[in-house]
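Morning!

This is the sequence you dropped in the shared folder:
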Amino acid sequence: MPLKNVVKKNTFEKSSTDEILHAIEECCEEKHIREIIDDDRTIKLMDLEKNMYMAVAPDPDIIIRTGGERRISNFLLWQSGGSHLCTVLALRPEIGLWNLVLAILNFQKHKPYFEMKKKEK
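The structure's back. Tokens below.
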């Protein structure tokens, strides 16, 4: 698997609730300005997604959750809808190369399923 398109996302402090609320507020502000020009009040999915904090980065393929937790707890909720959730028992400071390799192998095993789901959208 070539690693040329690998993007590592570390997010702290901001929750998905804050991010979604921010995106809606920005869309409403933009629509209010546009409404004066062309009477367009519809907020489209594309409008919402471009106002997300992580709009400049691709949606994650894999989310590695440390500490054995099986929940994403308000973390990248919007972007992780089609992501593979991998849990490891190691805590974040102790996560190693083998944890990453196993997560990638697990993702590759399930990749056909994720590709099928993306085509359905």
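Headline: The chain has two domains: 14-57, 58-121.

More detail when I'm at my desk.
O.
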